[in-house]
């Protein structure tokens, strides 16, 4: 699916907001080096209401998590054996595959298979043809994560998200300081 520049910007804003919320509410999971799947799950829960309030809200658009509803391998892209954690799509209609989001963690950061999957899955002639592929590498703090969100369109990396500087200090670290009384 080909996305407009406005749709890509809107997805970027939603992804950043859901990621900010994930760091804010679930920092203990990230700090203790939990598996990427529960963190991706929480991200998906924070992402869902943003999609519902966006231009992508239409009947038949779903967010699916680490699953396959068609009976084949779990969203393995064109022969690459990697799991996609979050997909935004219209079930049963490959022409409306909006975005796929992959998560990696700082303690298991080898994302090369995920990047290959994102590149292949965003090609127009691929099996899935997603409009946007997103790679998120979770770090111990939101500030360290700057630049660790990578975007792919038509098989090419198009930009990295770097705008974390405006966040309050409490959201930035795995061990936020308790407020002084």
Give a quick precis of the structure.
32% of the residues lie in helices and 20% in strands.
Number of helices: 4
Shape: globular
Which sequence of SSEs, written as H and E, runs from N to C? Answer: HHEEEHEEEH
Mean pLDDT across every amino acid position: 76
The number of distinct structural domains comes to: 1
End-to-end C-alpha gap: 53 Å
CATH class reads: Alpha Beta
Strand content: 15-25%
Main sheet makeup = 6 strands, mixed
CATH topology: tt1808, chain A
- The assigned structural class equals alpha+beta
Q: Share of helix among residues?
A: 25-40%
Using the CA coordinates, give the radius of gyration. 16 Å
Identify the strand order in the major beta sheet. Answer: 1-2-3-4-5-6
Poorly predicted regions are: 73-78, 162-181
**What is the level-2 CATH architecture name?**
Alpha-Beta Complex
Tally the beta strands: 6
